[in-house]
Amino acid sequence: MVNTLKKLIALTLLSFIATVSLAQDDLIFPIQRGTVSDWKYVSDQVMGGVSEGSVVLERDGDIAFARLIGDVSTKNNGGFVQLRSAISLFNKPEMFQLIHDANKEGKELQGVRLNVRGNGETYHVMIRTYFTWRPSDYYYHTFETGPDWRQVEMPFNEFKRSNSKSTKFNINDIRDFGIVAYGRDFKSDVSVSEISFYY
Question: What is the separation of C-alpha 162 from the centre of its chain, rounded to a whole number of angstroms?
């Protein structure tokens, strides 16, 4: 009984140390029930479009994930459904607090990594900063999906700006982060279990 307890404590400590070590390299934000309030569903209906969808929180064994499903339509100048960070002047989610304060021995964060699966379609990560206020002004990077969970890595220096040749943005200026089904008529079905920012 004593040996079993010692093994259990040792295993718990090992798991904790591994988690801390990983957290020192990346800022990891798993999708789980306690963090759902930091996110919201948004569609082009806010600007007169007709795309329909929803975000649901589901589980795959031990993995909790947000699933963005819907019908994307380009009618009425629309064309998107998205899972977006819920942020305002009075509400900065923990994710933004941490990435704005991130500094590892003078190094800045280099990119974002998602754990995703989906229906084989191409999706977007869209980032807005304090200097991109118009809906049509954002930085974006695309990623592919498949039926199995996989990690997709998107360096910040590969993001493009929607209406400008300028591609560089300051990490401290990020104010909005979205996973988006966008730009054409298709069925959205993309799941995200984890978002991490890496050095």
Answer: 19
Contact 171, 99 (CB under 8 A): yes
What CA–CA distances, in Å, run from 3 to 6, 10, 13, 102?
A: 5, 10, 15, 41
Look at the block and give the residue holding tokens 């809906």. Answer: 135
By three-state DSSP, how is residue 124 classified? strand
Q: What is the per-residue pLDDT across 130-150, written as a single tens digit (0 to 9) for each?
A: 888 788 899 999 999 999 999
Rounded CA gap, 30 and 60, in Å? 14
Please provide residue 180's backbone torsions phi and psi, each rounded to the nearest 5 degrees: -130, 135
How many whole angstroms separate alpha carbon 169 and alpha carbon 101? 16
Say what the pLDDT of residue 89 is. Answer: 54
Say what the pTM is.
Answer: 0.82
Rg of the Cα trace of the chain? Answer: 18
- Residue 56 pLDDT grade (very low, low, confident, very high; cuts 50, 70, 90): very high
Strands (E) located in 12-62: 26-30, 39-43, 52-60
pLDDT value at 9 more than 50: no
Task: Please give the Cα distance from 14 to 10 (Å, whole number).
Answer: 6
C-alpha span between 154 and 115 (Å, rounded): 12
> Considering only the top CATH level, what class is 27-198?
mainly beta
What is the Cα–Cα distance from 199 to 197, expressed in whole angstroms? 7
**Which one, of 41, 38, 47, lies nearest residue 135 by Cα?**
47
